[in-house]
Amino acid sequence: MSDPTNDYAYLAHNWAAVRERVDAACRAAGREPGEVSILPVSKTFGPEVVRAAMALGLHRFGENKVQEIRSKSEALAGESIEWVVIGHLQTNKAKEVARLASEVQSLDRLELADALQRRLEIEDRSLDVLIEVKTSPEDSKHGLPADQLSSFLHALRGYDRLRVRGLMTLAVQSDDAEAVRACFRQLRHLRDAGQDQGHDLARLSMGMSGDFPLAIAEGATEIRVGTAIFGVRQIPKTYGTGLNN
Ligand SMILES: *Cc1c(COP(=O)(O)O)cnc(C)c1O
Fold first, then answer.
1. Which of these ranges, 96-105, 178-187, 228-237, has the smallest mean pLDDT?
2. Which residue has a Cα nearest atom 12 of ligand 1?
3. Which of 127, 143, 150, 176 has its CA 20 to 30 A from that of 91?
4. Which protein family is named in the record (predicted)?
């Protein structure tokens, strides 16, 4: 077990450091620091760590597994937390997502949109969604192929429970900053093209611990940060705090 007081001090330090780097990246890009928000990614960290992060004023957390959202929301019942799904989603998880998530950033296919729409109707809810676009050649990356975005956006107009807010991507994992930037730039261009077609795509979720300054330079409105806030993820399947140990 971790010591919650230590968790708080550790998180407070990391959070301030990330916020400072975000602000510096904004200034370097001629942008206002307030233009970029940070989504803390709490995956693999337990509810006690999320609670420590809440003491910093954070209440919106990114997770990539629905079962982690379920167990953390049970452990933190009564807290007002918004859970954001950022990982690849299987269609059979739509029921829980419709119940527990406030937003999905990994919408990448109509089959999933169908399942979410149906479950959201049953729950009588709606959901903010970002469309995950594949901007990297790596097979391990999910996302809609870029050349299908226009028709996908058009089709989503028929899904009244899904509020499309923008686009999300993961850049190629590379030491070549230009290759990483090219992924982010492509997402921004796709966003601009979609907006020209009349779609409301204000949000660009791109950039993680290792590459967020590049994403901010290319127009990110939101970055998803795990490691730089919570520390290295040591135990991927079950909860480990990873903090101070
Ligand atoms: C884990 C994850 C992140 C955060 O990654 P870090 O490198 O730890 O900041 C961001 N986006 C997605 C989709 C993730 O799965």
1. 228-237
2. 86
3. 150
4. Belongs to the pyridoxal phosphate-binding protein YggS/PROSC family.
Q: What is the pTM of this model?
A: 0.93
**243 falls within a domain:** no
CA of 197 to the centre of ligand 1 (A): 30
The answer to whether 160 and 197 have CB atoms below 8 angstroms apart is no
Give the residue, out of 38, 167, 208, with the most ligand 1 atoms within 8 A of its beta carbon, to mutate for a pocket test.
208
Q: How many domains does the chain have?
A: 1
Give the whole-angstrom CA distance, residue 126 versus residue 10. Answer: 36
Tokens of 14: 């990391």
Assigned domain for 219 exists? yes
Distance 110 CA to ligand 1 centre (A): 24
Q: What angle do CA 176, 88, 229 make, to 5 degrees?
A: 60
CA 209–ligand 1 middle distance (angstroms):
7
Answer yes or no: is the C-beta of 65 below 6 A from any ligand 1 atom: no
Enclosing H/E stretch for 227: helix 227-230
Q: Which domain holds residue 154?
A: 4-230
- CB of residue 225 inside a 6 A radius of ligand 1: yes
Predicted pLDDT of residue 179: 97
Looking at residue 61, what is its pLDDT? 98
In a domain? residue 240: no
User: What is 124-135 written as a DSSP string?
Assistant: T--EEEEEEEE-
Look-up of token digits 């933190």:
76
Any ligand 1 atom below 6 A from CB of 104:
no
